[in-house]
Structure formats: structure tokens, C-alpha cells
Write a structure and sequence with these properties.
The protein has 204 residues and is mainly alpha-helical. It has one domain. It is built from nine helices and two strands; from the N terminus they run H-E-E-H-H-H-H-H-H-H-H. It has a two-stranded antiparallel ribbon with strand order 1-2. The radius of gyration is 19 Å and the shape is globular. The two termini are 23 Å apart. It is found in: Cell inner membrane. Keywords: Cell inner membrane, Cell membrane, Membrane, Transmembrane, Transmembrane helix. It comes from Paragemmobacter straminiformis.
Length: 204
Amino acid sequence: MDGQQGKKINPMLKLALELGPVVLFFAGYMKLRDQTVTLFGSDYSGFLVMTALFIPLMVITTGILWALTGKLSKMQVATVVLVVVFGGLSVWLKDERFFKMKPTMIYLLFGGMLGFGLLRGQSYLKLVMEEALPLKPEGWMILTRRLCAFFFALAVANEVIWRSFSTEVWVNFKTFGLTAALFLFFMSQSGVLNRYGIEEDEKG
């Protein structure tokens, strides 16, 4: 999906730019969760205040990432757009549900993109991660099918959590649960990576 090569930056800086807004949202929400803030004559819950702050912070950190690396993946761009749209709707309409639906939309989009590629006999995941994970073609197809199903499962999980539990439970799920789930997914794919990985001497 992105053939353009980007410049390398410090991995810790990259991680801070990508996860920083999420961590700050969580910290701010935990501090303001029981408070109501009055802005411009309107009352906003702590959740909506942090949502309003999260939107520009996400845009700024993504812009910094683009400035430093010279590129953004389509997934990063899609994430920012959905944050702006759904976060903006939540703040504008004072309705937390829109922002809570945002992860669902993101994972449906990612799963749909991978699924569309699979229907065409292609691994769009390979186009994004080939440099980081050199695999044989059959390995990419297996990993893509699994990740596609996993994204759809995360979308369902997010819907169940925000519709069935409190806002605090959802914030914890979004901050820690989704991140941990993605980490554990890739850890669990070590068999595929070992079986279909391409060694350095095979690349040439």
C-alpha cells in the first residue's frame, strides 16, 4: 500500500509519538473522570474534555512523525481521519458514543482492507510490513488471513465493551486491552514467522 521509503528515526521516539496521545488521554481521563468542566457556557464531562484534547494531540504527533520520517502509512492516515471525525462528533454533539465507536470503525476498515486484498489474491499486509518482516509469499497470506480475522474480532470486542460496560472499563480496555491484544497476536505468530521467514542469504 505504501511503496515510498521513509527516513529512519529513533525507535523510542517513534513509539512515544505513536503511543503518547493514548497514554495522555488515559492519564487525563483518570484525573477528570468524575468532573464536569464548563467551557464557553457548556458543560462537558471529563471524558469529552480529554477527547477534545486528544484530537489535536493526535494530529500534531502524527504530523511530527510525518515530518521526521517523510512518510505515513495509509493505516496511520486513516486512524487520524477517524479520530478527527468521530472524536469531533462526540465533542460537538456531547455524545461519548461516537468516540467509543472509533476503534470499531478503525478495525473494520483495516480488516476490510486486508480482506479485499485477500479476495484479489494479494497480501496488503506485505506491502506495509515487508521490510520489517521478510516472509515467503505463503507466509504473508497466512499471516494476513489471521490478522484480518483478528481485526474483525477486535471490532466486535470493542462494541461489546463500550455497549455493555462503564466508560472507565472501556478506557482501560482501549488503552491496555487493545494494545496487549495486538502484542499477543504477533507474539503468537512466531510459528509462521519461523517457518516462512526469509534469511539474509535468501533475499539476494
